[in-house]
Amino acid sequence: MDNTLSRLGALAIEAGEAIEAVAREARWEITEKSDLSPVTQADLAAHDIISAALPGIIDVPIISEEDALAPFKTRSEWGRYWLIDPLDGTREFIRARPEYTVNIALITAGKAEIGIVYCPASRRLYLGNHNATHGPVGSFKATDGNHHWQPLSARRLPAEPTLICGHRQDSATEAQLRRALSELTGHSEAPTRMGSSIKFCLLAEGRYDLYPRLGPTSEWDTAAGQVVLEAAGGAVLEARTLEPLGYNRRDSILNPPFWAVADGHPSSFGFWQTLRRQST
C-alpha cells in the first residue's frame, strides 16, 4: 500500500484511539453547536489529531465538521482539499452504539478521490482509492487495527435487494420505498438500521444493496464512505437525478437527498430509475 494511504490509515486509528479513551472516562461533557447537534470531547480530540497531521501528508486546506467553514468564495478556489468528520455518529457515540466512525477524505475538482473510514469500536478500517498515483485503485478493508488490506467488491443487484437505513429515517418515505420494492421484486424486508458512514462500507462489503438517505446530511458525512463504496463497484447518486454526488459545488455544505447503491453498474440503472420513480 502507498505510504500516503498507510499514513492515513494510521492517522484514522490514532484518532479512533482518542475517541475510545474518552469513551472509557467516567464522566465527559456533551455540548451543543449552533445547529443544535451534539459535540463531545471525543469529537474535539479526534479533530485536533487529524487536523494537525494532515498537512504533513498532503498540504492542502482542510474542512472539518469541528472547525469554522470557510466562505464559498474561498472554497470555490480550492482545487484540492481535505474533508473530515473526526467523529461521525456523535449521537451513536453518546448512546454507546458501536457504529460511530472517523472519516477522512481527499477531494479533487469536486470529486471524492481518497477515503478512509475507521470504526473504533470494532477496529475495522476501510480505504477507497480512485488515484493510481497513491497505490492500488480499489476498495479495501483491514481488521483489528492492522494494515493487512483485503480487497472489497460490492455485489451485483440480487433478485431480493436488501436495505440499510439510518436510525432517523422518515417512516412514511421508507414505507413508500418498501412498497415500490415489493411491487418490483415481490420481496421487501424491514431494513437494518445503523448510524454513521459505516453503512457505505457495509454496501461495499456486499452485505446490503441500497442505502437511501432523503434527510439532511453534510458533505463530511458522506465523502470518505462514498469513495469506499464507489471503488468497490457501487455508486452514490443524487436521488432526484441519479447523478453522482459531488462536492464543493454550492454555498451550502449540505448534501441533496441521495441513494447509495451497491451495484453501480450501468446495467442496473434501469432498476434504480424505476424504483425511484415508483417510490416518489
UniProtKB/TrEMBL annotation:
Entry superkingdom:
Bacteria
The EC designation for this entry is 3.1.3.7
Localization, per the record, is:
Cell inner membrane
Q: Which residues bind Mg(2+) 1?
A: E65, D85, L87
Q: Which Gene3D superfamilies match?
A: 3.40.190.80, Fructose-1,6-Bisphosphatase, subunit A, domain 1
Cite the entry's keywords alphabetically: Cell inner membrane, Cell membrane, Hydrolase, Magnesium, Membrane, Metal-binding
Q: Which SUPFAM superfamilies match?
A: Carbohydrate phosphatase
Major location category of this protein = membrane
One example GO MF annotation: 3'(2'),5'-bisphosphate nucleotidase activity
Task: Name any cofactors this protein relies on.
Answer: Mg(2+)
Please list the residues that bind Mg(2+) 2: D85, D88, D221
Catalysed transformations (reactions): adenosine 3',5'-bisphosphate + H2O = AMP + phosphate
The way it spans or sits in the membrane comes to:
Peripheral membrane protein
Annotated residues that bind substrate are located at E65, L87, D88, G89, T90, D221
Please give the start and end residues of each transmembrane region: none
HAMAP family per the UniProt record, alphabetical: CysQ
Q: Which family does it belong to?
A: Belongs to the inositol monophosphatase superfamily. CysQ family.
Q: What does this protein do?
A: Converts adenosine-3',5'-bisphosphate (PAP) to AMP.
The name of this protein is: 3'(2'),5'-bisphosphate nucleotidase CysQ
From the broadest rank down, the organism's phylogenetic lineage runs:
Bacteria, Pseudomonadati, Pseudomonadota, Gammaproteobacteria, Cellvibrionales
